[in-house]
Amino acid sequence: MQHMKATLIAQAKEVRDDGSIVEIVVWELARPLPPCAHRYKYRLFFGTSGECFVRYDNETGKGDHRHAGSVETLYNFKDLDALLADFERDVTNWRKDR
Fold it and tell me: What Å distances lie between residue 16 and 13, 20, 22, 29, 32, CA to CA?
């Protein structure tokens, strides 16, 4: 597989007092990553070093999707602002007693 040129546009990691991790990585690609129509490659993670609470990501062949614990669902990507807002909402509303 040939790698395409990408520009890192966002990268942040926060380790919270309770040990949870919030990490955001977003790349802008030269062309969309099929089957996505947009030109972003992203990984938004909330969890611990051993457990994923919430994750949004995309990959070739699979497209945009969201993980909530062990459940994976398709994600309807609108734009980066909506993606970040959806992720922030999930992090804010997540409860360990689910």
Answer: 10, 5, 8, 30, 33
